[in-house]
Design brief:
The complex is a heterodimer.
Chain A (H helix, E strand, L loop, with lengths): L6 H56 L4 E10 L2 H6 L3 H20 L6 H4 L7 H14 L4 E7 L2 H8 L15 H12 L3 E5 L1 H5 L12 H32 L4 H13 L4 H15 L7 H25 L3 H9 L4 H29 L3 H5 L20 H9 L5 H35 L1
Antiparallel strand pairs in A: 1-2, 1-3
Chain B lengths: L11 H10 L15 E12 L2 E12 L3 E5 L6 H8 L9 E9 L2 E2 L7 H7 E4 L10 H11 L6 H14 L3 H4 L12 H13 L5 E5 L7 H14 L4 E5 L3 H7 L2 E6 L2 E7 H6 L4 H7 L5
Parallel strand pairs in B: 3-8, 3-9, 6-7, 7-8
Antiparallel strand pairs in B: 1-2, 1-4, 4-5, 9-10
Helix pairs in contact in B: 4-5, 4-7, 5-7
Classes of the chains: A mainly alpha, B alpha/beta.
Bound molecules: adenosine-5'-diphosphate and magnesium ion (MG).
Chain lengths: ~425, ~290
Amino acid sequence: MNNTIDPERLRQRLADARAERLQASLQRRHRKEAVFRGLGLGAVCLALGFLAVLLFTIFSQGMSAFRSSHVQLTLEFDAQRLGDAGSERERLEQYQTWLDEALLRALDAPESRASAVRPLLSAAAVYQVRDRLEDVAARPGGRATLWVLASDEVDLIQTGVVDRAWPEAARSLSDQHLAWIDRLSEAELLERRYNRAFFTGADSREPEVAGIWGAVVGSFLTLVVTLALAFPVGVATAVYLEEFAPRNRLTDLIELNINNLAAVPSIIFGLLGLAIFINTLGMPRSAPLVGGLVLTLITLPTIIIATRSALRAVPNSLRDAATGMGASRLQVTLHHVLPMAMPGILTGTIIGLAQALGETAPLLMIGMVAFIANVPSGFADPATVLPVQIFIWSDSPERAFIAKTSAAIMVLLGFLAVMNLAAVLLRRRFEHRLK
Amino acid sequence: MVFLRRAEPPQSSSALAAASATQSSSGFLPGALVDRPRLSARDISVYYADVQAITNVSMDVAQHEILALIGPSGCGKTTLLRTFNRMNDSVRGCRVTGNVIFDGEPIYRKGVDPVALRARMGIVFQKPNPFPKSIYDNVAYGPRLHGLVDRQAELDEVVEASLQRTGLWNEVKDRLHKPALSLSGGQQQRLCIARTIAIAPEIILMDEPCSALDPIATARIESLMRELARNHSIIIVTHNMQQAARVSDRTAYFHEGHLIEIGTTDQIFTTPEQSLTEDYITGRYG
Ligand SMILES: Nc1ncnc2c1ncn2[C@@H]1O[C@H](COP(=O)(O)OP(=O)(O)O)[C@@H](O)[C@H]1O
Ligand SMILES: [Mg+2]
């Protein structure tokens, strides 16, 4: 082997090849970069595309649920007959008669039977009349004009979900009904108006009066329980583990378990809640209290992990500064470390709560899937929550619930967006205050 | 910079052995003890897990003196400084043997409250670390914490006096309630010193307080130290030979966790007895 290397020649050779090689290498690098950027951009576009399709589907299906068909009727009461009616049931029947008469007048079809025109109106219409016009009805010669709820079948025709061109047998409304709908529309007595019931009511068997408010209140009560338990317990656990606990086998084991807890499927927590809170401790079924307890178990690991990483991000120089001034461990933590970690802790908490807000499976296990037609008024009342309401409606046979389902999803997404926005704003405010 | 040339000193281990041999039979280096000491380290060893960072250090700190701790980086100056006010207690895996005597009382003993100890022994760190609060709240933190004042007016006085002594008052008096982190590096370090002296500690520990500062800020802090030494004992860790020579009364040289030589600053810088000390001071070892 010839081992003699002439350094001068080597230098010369490298210098000659340099420009060329650099050029080639640069080209290779640029190509790689372009490919990488293209892939990244493609991934982002794909994700955005899916999101757009999802949102479009939900919005196009759900928007119609915020309005519902109403019929304008002029009711002519007779205080005398109301006075004759003894029981509440008889009074209601009386109202139904006046309602039927008003509809027949509006349809200009006096020879038709009341039972034939009734499918045009919601079963809830008679209650609307009674609740709103009780005073007028009690007056001699009372008379009033009111927009009452049309039935969901009419609304489906109006929104085009049910096609008029379908054969009569495939529709629940007959051709005669369609003719009446047209007559009402021409007379401007049939309109799609703001659907108040959707925002103020609880669930119902009648799609046109089913509302989201019951589920919203249920979700709120459940999250209050979750927040009230998971935040203090989670933060205290994280602070103890991070700032006070010695490092030994036991704390390592605890840490491992907390991390594993975050990965346990949530339905398992539902079973746990059913077994412990309901069967053993005898707490009420379907209650926000139990739902909140179960969601606390699910949210705790998230809050603990977020808090620990927020605490770890606080520089040791800050702890040193306070310790060196003679602050005790607790004072160091309360005066300096926690305030500095607070933005991270709050963000983690809100993310945990958002996760809890969307949780469905464990709540099915503890009975929050029951049909509940009342807005809950306390932590022990039977209730349901938004995602479970979505699940219930999506599972209902009536076509009108399709739009309700999408509308409920929009409400849920709205709440999630608000919570995330709150997380961002809180973070900003805290960071601003620290600067 | 001298300490960047980290060539292995050829005679290191033998010189270390020679240095150890000069310890008197009582175990103290000549010059390590003083009359009526304020603070004494006795046979201090510090371990991080299994690694020994300080080996059998014994020395005294006199009343109202400035003692400089010098030595190559990693030799354990910071570790030793932090053992004086038990700051190492909160470091995981850190273990201290031997004892520190403060006012005749051992501080590494059951029943000694490190919190009370730190109220009497302030510490200033290498990197300025003001609290992310206002300038005023930084200085007021200690007095409030220890309940040193009863009235707001009194607190205002303490804050003003502390800022005056660090020469910061005129620069910040119009923005006391602005965030401390908006100050420059030198101002932040002087604020940290003001925060420390606001609780009137008897001893001030300083860990390379000027390493991040420009010459002007450094000069201010040095003159501040001389001023403070009238009422306090100061132990300062420094990498800067000139600084040690300028401000300190006595100097201790450390090497790989051992106290090699200690004496008056004059003696250490003009006639060092150990070859390790001489090499370091003359820049042959860094
Ligand atoms: N928290 C710690 N954990 C483990 N080892 C440490 C720690 N702090 C310092 N050491 C080690 O102790 C030795 C002395 O460090 P230090 O006291 O910071 O030296 P100096 O301040 O003189 O540069 C070094 O070897 C360093 O690596
Ligand atoms: Mg150091």
